[in-house]
Every structure is written in C-alpha cells, then in structure tokens.
Amino acid sequence: MEEGDGEANVAYYCLHKFHWPPSLFLEMTAREKAFVIAAICKKTAADKKEADRLRSKKR
Fold it and tell me: Does a structural domain hold residue 55?
C-alpha cells in the first residue's frame, strides 16, 4: 500500500475492488482486518509480478 493512514488505504482499496462501504472494513475485528490486508498484499504482489513479467516479454 501507499503512504498515509494504512487502514484508510485498505478501506479505499476494498471500496474500489470489492464495492464494500468503508465502514464494512473499519468495523471488522483486528483478525479479520489482518486477513483482508494479507490477502490484498498477496494479490497486489502477484499482480505486480505478472505485470513485470509481461513488461519484460515486450522487450
């Protein structure tokens, strides 16, 4: 995730990717938030790896 308030960034991501209202994420338990954050980190890392792979293929 980028700079700023970490929870707000994750809530923003959830809003745009999952169409969740921010309150849904913000009202989760700490364990639920940790799971969502870990899943988002795993997904964004995989997406970045795939984008890098495709970019290197173009060269």
Answer: yes
- The pTM for the full model equals 0.80
**pLDDT tens sequence across 9-58:** 999 999 999 999 999 999 999 999 999 999 999 999 999 999 999 999 87
Instruction: Evaluate whether residue 20 is within a structural domain.
Output: no
Distance CA 11, CA 32 (A): 13
**Residue 34 maps to a domain:** yes
- State CA 53 to chain mean position distance: 20
The domain containing residue 58 runs over which residues?
29-59
